[in-house]
Design brief:
Strand content: under 5%
Helix content: over 70%
Number of helices: 15
Distance between the termini: 14 Å
Radius of gyration: 20 Å
Amino acid sequence: MASLDQIKEPVKQHIVEFEKYFRGSMKSSVPLLDRITRYIVKRKGKQMRPLFVFLAAEISGGVNDSTYRGASLVELLHTATLVHDDVVDDSNERRGFFSINALWKNKISVLIGDYLLSRGLLLSLENDDFEMLKIVSNAVKEMSEGELLQIEKARRLDIQEDVYYEIIRKKTASLIASCCACGSFSAAGDAKLSEQMRLFGEKVGMAFQIKDDLFDYQKANNTGKPSGIDIRDKKMTLPLIYLLNNSGERDKRRIKNIIKNHNTDIEKVSALIREVSESGGIDYAKKKMLEFREEAFGILNTFDDSPARRSMANLVSFTTDRDK
């Protein structure tokens, strides 16, 4: 499997330049804001979202100034949602760093999220990037809907497979889709081409989230046992949905009772995870993940061959073959 550094190669210089550009896009005359935004930049992860944007642009005709704005817009709006998410989830940590609310409390965190959102909107409006603003704003709307749909369904534990796909399409895939669509539109200004790239990103996002959900059923390094975090949080993911769909009514009631009332009981959760595995639920989820990945490759292969297209294919493999 290609490393992330190898994957970045066709757009490596753009990613380096983007980091400076992104810092500038968050600049403020308020010292507290500047201090917090510097902290946000310092703890940025693998830069996967900008990578999707720049590779999509390179595939569609080449990176230009609006590509940098598109990547910044995605990062600003997505970072705003993450800051707000940490407040909602009362989370003190993100990617191994203290979250904004852990260091500066909820009130400041909400205001920081609002500030980042407004910076993204202004960046687009000041440069007449209306189409890219529409693409990313729609993704943020879908992410919110996906989260709320998941919360609603978790209360009743009645998620069917089609509803699960709808949740992950909105929650996760819409963001990767918007990265690809923005990158393509910035390069070519072609709505049809951008939609093709958006659909590619959506398929990648679906495969990515199913892969993410499978980690809950793998052994954690420090305990040697599966984490079961999704079960504890009453999240109905594909392996668990498969088990329920292939169980009788009595077993369904028993499984739902564990999820609803015994989700912190390590032994019961571990037994349920074993049951999921023995039912074929994990294999089924892997099969579905690979189907979405193949659909993504099928769309990507309609674009002309280039180093950027090959890197994008490697990026898709990287996101679905990763072990963390």
